[in-house]
Amino acid sequence: MERPLSDVTVADFSQLMQGGWLTQKLGDMGADVIKIEPPGGERFRGGGPIGSDIGENPFFLAVNRNKRSISVDLKTERGLEVAHDIIEGADIVVENFRPGVMERLELGYEDVRDINPEIIYVSGSGYGSTGPHAERPGQDLLAQAKSGLAKNTGRKQDPPTPAGTYVCDAHSATTLALHTAIALYHRERTGEGQKIESNLLNAGIDMQTQEITTALNVDEDIERSEAGIGHPLSSAPYGIYETRDGHVAISFANLPGLAEELSVEPICDYTDRREVHEHRDEIKRQIEAATREKETDRLLERLLDAGLWVSRVHDYETAANDPQVQHNEMIVELDHPSVGSFETTGVPVSMSETEVTYESPPALGEHADEVLRELGYENDEIRSLREEEVI
Fold it and tell me: Which sign does the torsion angle of CA 235, 236, 238, 239 carry?
């Protein structure tokens, strides 16, 4: 089964999660992603999180499957010529350096468009390429802070709390991948390439559209709950509850039904929507006093049988082994030349007429000879590039 982007070539100069996940999503759909790395490899190949002594940074493995790697010194004249040759045959260029870096390398949009007028040039950054903060360092935590996300996460008495994953990176990568596909469709219809830009700050604002729209149009302060209601705009029982041997999440559940199952009568006294919201901390504490006395399995069974919206709270290992996660094929196993077999996440969307295949993230420069031969380089030219340490 031919994949939908099998005739698309991506010149990928990007790094870290924002760029890596963007181009991985294109590679998952069949694009030939040529990962152009500096000597020594992109930053994600270096020091990683705990457990990165498996032979490769797990963060790199997570966002670089279905790509080919060539390592090129872009600060040399011959290295720049190699990059131009790759760009000339590409459909998409992707970069996520700080503003001005690609222009200094003579690989900015105008430079690339002179080489390939129909190119789709995708640029990710921290805050945007222009504006009062464009030159500031941009990173996911900073974007969570700047967008208001951290301030509205956690309990009222706690300091602002960042999310447990890099949500701005992830949302930025996903929206850029979506709009890259839209740009391909636009070019198919008009023959026109274009430049696409987004950034971590925009992603942080975009993913909070409901909360920000409420804050800007409702004359009330948004305040976090003291007891741990899971969303600053939500009422009880929305939140995480301790059990005798773990935790459960309870989202939208009618309070009388929940009170009956837990034998917590006082919470039935609050029936008006605003009253429930005003007393949400008290209600949360009453519910949790009851759930702490119950075993997770029995509590889930009882509440699910009653039609209430509940779930077990997993750690990563138990989440990966959850029967629904397994059924959805969201954990896949790949083979890597230095790591060996490793597990990672799968593609979250299924398509009735499109097959997904998985190829391991590349070793640094693994496909240099292959890529250069496809560009027309002879063996002696490739040997010369190696001797001069251009590749």
Answer: positive
The CA distance from 349 to 305, in Å, is 29
55 vs 53, higher pLDDT: 55
Helix-helix angle 280-291:255-262, to 10 degrees: 30
**Which of 53, 169, 219, 380 is an active site residue?**
169
* Interatomic CA distance for residues 238 and 105, integer angstroms: 51
Residue (of 163, 167, 259, 237) closest to 205 by Cα position:
167
pTM of the entire predicted model:
0.93
Query: What whole-number distance in Å separates Cα of residue 87 and Cα of residue 265?
Result: 68
91 an active-site residue? Answer: no
Which of the pair, 305 or 53, is modelled with greater confidence? 305
**How confident is the model at residue 51, as a pLDDT?**
55
What pLDDT was estimated at residue 16? 95
Judged against a pLDDT cut of 60, whether residue 207 lies above it is answered with yes
CB 251 within 8 A of CB 309: yes
Say which residue, 28 or 51, is predicted with more confidence.
Answer: 28
Nearest to 62 by CA among 23, 4, 8: 23
Q: Whose CA is closest to 73, among 39, 36, 26?
A: 39
**pLDDT score at 267:** 72
Q: Tokens standing for 118?
A: 């129909």
Distance CA(34)–CA(80), nearest Å, equals: 15
**Inter-residue contact 238 to 230 (CB < 8 Å):** yes
Which residue intervals of the chain bear CATH 3.40.50.10540? Answer: 9-207+323-387
- Kindly report which listed range (66-70, 136-140, 235-239, 336-340) carries the lowest average pLDDT score: 336-340
| Bond from prior residue into 160 cis (ω within 30 degrees of 0) | no
Written as one letter, the residue type at 255 is L
Report the alpha-carbon distance of residue 247 to residue 32 in Å, rounded: 44
Residue 110 backbone phi and psi in degrees, to 5: -65, -40
Strand partners, 35: 12, 69
Q: What is the mean pLDDT of the chain?
A: 94
CATH code reported for the domain at 224-313: 3.30.1540.10
pLDDT tens digits, residue range 240-285?
999 999 999 999 888 888 989 998 877 767 778 888 889 999 999 9
Q: What is the CATH number of domain 9-207+323-387?
A: 3.40.50.10540
Q: Specify the residue for token string 């034998």.
A: 263
Query: Which part of the chain is CATH 3.30.1540.10?
Result: 224-313
